[in-house]
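Researcher: Re-running this chain for the archive, since the previous output was lost when a drive failed. Same request as before.
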Amino acid sequence: MRLMTKDIVAPPGGVMTDEVGTVTGDLTLAPEVAPDGTITLKVQYKDADEWYQVTDATVQVSDPANQQEVEQAANDLLNRFSG
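Model: Regenerated structure tokens:
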């Protein structure tokens, strides 16, 4: 489940992904929440169809049913990679 998205311009050096290496330019970031509470950050070129896993951008929440905890962790992850 995607909670929110955030459009950014890639920082100097770009954003590293597991699948395609570094992406640069206008990007969209989106945290995805798995049923086990794992939150991963995905990135795409703005308005593209393909999403990629941001390298080293995974956090775990203790209670995936706690919406406040999930949203805070997802927000923290977004902020960590978007300045």
